Amino acid sequence: MNDFIKINFWVNGKQYDLEVPPLKPLSRILREDLHLTGTKEGCREGECGACSVILNATLINSCLYPAFKLNRKDIITIEGLQVDEKLNPIQEAFKEVMALQCGFCTPGLLMAVYYYVYILKGDCEDRIQIKNAIGGNICRCTGYEQIIQAIESLKDKVR
Amino acid sequence: MKKDKKIFHRVDADEKLRGKALFVDDIYMPDMLYGRIVRSPITRGILNKISIPEQYKKKDLVFVTYKDIPGKNCVSSVESDLPILTEREIRYKGQAIALIAHKDREFLEDVLASLELSIERLPACTDMVDSLNKKEILVNKDNIFRRLRIKKGNADKFLKESYFKSERIYRTPHQEHLYLETQGMIGYMENGVLNIKGSMQCPFYVVEALELGLGISRKRISVQPTTTGGAFGGKEDFPSLLALHAALLTMKAGKPVKMILERGEDIAFTTKRHPSLIKQELGFYKEGKLVAARVKVILDAGAYETLSKVVLSRSILHAMGVYECDNVVIDGELVCTNTPPSGAFRGFGAPQSMFAIESHIDEISSKLKMNPVDIRRINIIKPQSILCTGQNIGNECILPEMLNDALKETRYITKYEKNNIFNSKNREMKKGIGISLFMHGNGFTGNGERILSSRAGLTLKANGSIELLFSNIDMGQGCNTVMIQIASKALQIPPENIYVGKIDTLSTPDSGPTVASRTTLIIGDLIYKASKKLKRILQKSSPREDDFNKKAGKYISEHGELTIIEDYRHPEELSFDDETYQGEAYRSYSLGCNIAEIEVQLDTFQIDIRKFHAYYDIGTVINKPLSEGQIRGGIMQGIGYAMYENLIFENGVVRNNSMTDYIVPTAMDMPQINVKFMKNKSNYGPYGAKGLGELPMNGPPAAINNALRQALGIDFHSIPFLPERILEVWMKKNE
Amino acid sequence: MKVFIPKSLQEAVSFLKENQNFIPFAGGTDLMPLLAKGVLSKKNSFIDLNNLTEELSFINLQEDGNLWIGSLATIRKLCENHIIAEHFPLIAASAINIGSVQIRNLATIGGNIANASPAADLIPALLVHDSSLILTSDKKTRQIDLKDYYVSYKRTSRKPYELITGIIVKPLEQGRILFRKIGNRKNLSLSKIVVSSYIAKEFETKDPCRFAAGSVKEIPARLFNLEESVINRRISESELRNALLRDISPINDVRSTCIYRTEVLLRVIRKFIEWK
Lengths: 159, 735, 276
Description:
- The complex is a heterotrimer of chains A (159), B (735) and C (276).
- Helices cover 28% and strands 16% of the residues of chain A.
- Chain A has five helices and five strands; from the N terminus they run ββαβββαααα.
- Chain A has helices spanning 26-33, 89-96, 106-119, 127-133, 145-152; strands at 5-11, 14-20, 52-55, 58-61, 74-76.
- In chain A, strands 2-1-5-3-4 form a five-stranded mixed β-sheet, sandwiched between helices.
- In chain B, helix 9 (350-367) runs parallel beside helix 18, helix 14 runs parallel beside helix 15 and helix 17 (624-643) crosses helix 18.
- Among the domains of chain B are: 24-123 and 180-269, Alpha-Beta Complex (Aldehyde Oxidoreductase, domain 3); 405-438 and 588-735, Aldehyde oxidase/xanthine dehydrogenase, molybdopterin binding domain (Aldehyde Oxidoreductase, domain 4, 2-Layer Sandwich), CATH 3.30.365; 448-567, 2-Layer Sandwich (Aldehyde Oxidoreductase, domain 4), CATH 3.30.365.10.
- Chain B is an alpha+beta fold.
- In chain B, 58% of the residues are buried.
- Chain C has a domain at 175-274: CO dehydrogenase flavoprotein, C-terminal domain (Enolase-like, domain 1, 2-Layer Sandwich), CATH 3.30.390.50.
- In chain C, a hairpin with an 8-residue loop joins strand 12 (193-200) and strand 13 (209-214).
- Chains in contact: A-B, A-C, B-C.
- The interface between A and B is large, with 55 and 55 residues.
């Protein structure tokens, strides 16, 4: 019980040992300690979704996740989404229909889509479910339609 | 561009999709300090003294006050009246008083909490009406920063003589940009040059501000925009202030300083859309022809005037909407209040005007017992119509055609009649369909582009590739992709051989700010001309060669790299008088028509948009998916402005400065939106293109208001249409 | 800034007995924003409950028909549970309307109860189910009715050395139910009104109806006067209004108005009562 805490966890398949303040949020640990700046902070209150990552196969807001809970956790961030430098089918779909503009919400959104499509095996033809899946990610640029179209286009491309 | 079936992907797609794009907060520098702004805790007063408690003085804390400003203590703008740091006078809560920097952010929080400020409090006017009533005098003798006027014909005479007159007052509130990336800047010194990296729309505005405030030559200033995470106008003027703050701290500290605004700070203290109060008197002949109009547009500039004059200018120029009227007098006033300075926001004064005129015309149709379409048909601009500045709209005005298409394809008339029957029978739920027509003038107003004199061009590099040179920012709208597309078509070479040069104000030509729907139109044209010039030069150097690479190779081996910079030339036939507001205010006007189909449940009074139809004339569509993205994003901001976004000011202080309480639409709130682009070609702009960035913002509030009018039989004169308001008005009406 | 990380429930409650200033930390969705905003700071201390997750995230249907839910069950778990979906649809509807996917994955039912927000989405449904809480301390476990748990704004009858460890949800007899959450947008919103209701099919039973609402007074609460009015078949608009006005005391705030909260709640409830 002191000002720093030792934690050991995995990010994108790599193991890390760190000593950090116990309440430092995961988003800041990723960005400042690990220099994985793809994960963004837009509000620090779990509202915008820009900091979304996968933690033990669930989608979370990393700004709401303190260091002291991190021990032995397994995390995937935007930097871990592409294998061998090739874009993941979700990223390809976003590129194809131009489902991004300023790009600030994009990493978090991609994690939400990854969770819906790959982990929950969600239906890519059900617009209501798709909207619900990305309902925790605010995008101020696109008006969402092209993002939804990108997800719809994934129906034959994944699994 | 029919043959180009190939999609031009966003050139920034890969780096953004991989999370590799570097936004300002993603940059870390060795030895970097964090900077924070000490802000005024009161809305109006006099600052006597600020001091740091003894215990903080030795701990490497960097502390900057106005005394550390080497140049003029003001932020350069249209009117450079905003101080960089407070000397004495405080005009709004949150006004910057001092700056602090340290390597430990938590330490800065402690310092902020314990600073000793000696401030004399003065009574304030935090509302436009209080200022207009001169409850307190804040500036000048009447709290008015500035007045503008447009006059055509004899409005007084014809108003008196008209068969039917209608007078209404409309109000619109602040709107927050809520770009996902908050404002941020990094400053550092390198070899005697001040470097500023950050999120911005207008790198040369930042240069001008640094030159004036720091009193150093622009040769010693390098501004390098980072990937900009959304802006919508919010990063047009404010970054100049933040860059000055970062610069002052880094110059005093001798170390790099990063300043990133917290979300709560960003919402509360950066610029917002101008609140408005618009009074309209419209006079009609019996058959519904609009014969005279007297309009007064009052905008709330906030505590300092800054760029508000040009916002007001656009407001009054759009005050008549898409209607032709022979007798018009439009007065504009900018009023000072003790709130943060209002600033640029997508639409720049036009959305306020469009909401007012489109709501009013619709309301009058029911008073004149006409349907909302007929009154519009009689009065809308057509080819050769004369606008209030005397400008002839020309032959490219396809508004009547657009209206016809929209009515036919949406079956507006049928639905309108069916709704009336439905509403007469149904007591649980009401239906409405509403239409709005709107336009947006492209590029800077009047002589603005002539004064800007933008420069842009390209370099044929030694390896045969083309580097495009311009200083406009791709903040998501996709201008980098569009410029490459334009150059690729003009040069007839694949886009892979073309790239956009990294912007550094020390070397990149000044192509003006990234605002006013001007980038494709003005800079696109410069890039087009530079490309054509390069093509001609290469053709001359090897007349018999067809292959671009071989031509380029030959030229480079003989002459080396080639840079071509095009200077903007204002079309000679366009002239505008800044005093009388007569002439060609804009080279071209983009047009739009929105139709909203809504339902209102009479238990919760929430508006449910069932379908939203959106028609646009943006001239030639250069890149359809990009254009559609701009349009859809703009519509959602417009719907937000109309239905959700309610920045609550209480005594000059924003109460809901969080993403939890400032409500913008999520994916779940997105209705079905059908977007259609009309076929048209502009005489100005590359390949016949017109501007489109701001246009979609102008339509939704009035379309939704007009649908509400049918659904509930209520005329609303202000936004947003929160269910709380609808309920209260409904209860009053049905008591 | 101190965080104590116990390995078991017993360790947690023995520690709390001696260190009553430690704030229990479960999903963190309410606490982390307070830390970011400086409302909570490094001066505060926390006790992490996450090692107790296995022990305390059960969802078990008992033989008597009661549902036992561990306080560390996440909202997501409530959404996905088949027993809840089938037999406790009010709870399911309340859970699915909380926040976003991300929030539901982290937030816990115990946290939603302990945070004591008047707008807490789950509470009206739990109140309609006549739920009770299990509070555990070092040497003792006690049970308290949820309707008695909230004392005043953000204050509860939990002692600082106690932890909420479980919730007992009683089943409803056959009948009609209503759940409505009214927020400022369709999701990702805090309730400006949240209401759960139940009317028994056999109205002549001793417990024919229950109504509860959130965001309409300083604590989430049962609407007892309204219930009495309905039981006595005084269901004209003015009778319902008068009863409701004795149950609630809504305020104007950044999210809504007093009038809206009153009128809309009344309309929603009337529609439900009159529904044939």
